[in-house]
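Re: that backbone. Tokens:
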């Protein structure tokens, strides 16, 4: 996959995650007091994963074509780890 296609894929996933965070934030606001802390903790974890993914996307965007070839495998591995962590945090609410 070339860099531009990869960045577009990352942008789409980040948009999806932002929507999921917004949904969870709405649930947290409606939750009873004892559940609010639990929601906030999960939201924090999800935001952290989203922010890490955003940073990786920026790295990919800034990479030259030669650098992209060298960093692609590591980037894909990092992205998968971040994605997995985000989905684990999200799944705790379903």
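Recovered sequence:
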């Amino acid at each position: 996959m070339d860099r531009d296609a990869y960045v577009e894929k990352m942008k789409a996933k980040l948009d999806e995650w932002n929507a999921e965070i917004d949904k969870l934030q709405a649930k947290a606001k409606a939750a009873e007091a004892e559940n609010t802390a639990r929601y906030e903790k999960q939201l924090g974890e999800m935001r952290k994963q989203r922010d890490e993914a955003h940073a990786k996307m920026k790295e990919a965007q800034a990479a030259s074509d030669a650098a992209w070839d060298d960093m692609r495998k590591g980037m894909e591995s990092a992205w998968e780890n971040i994605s997995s962590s985000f989905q684990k945090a999200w799944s705790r609410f379903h």
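The mean pLDDT is 85. The chain is about 90% helix and 0% strand.
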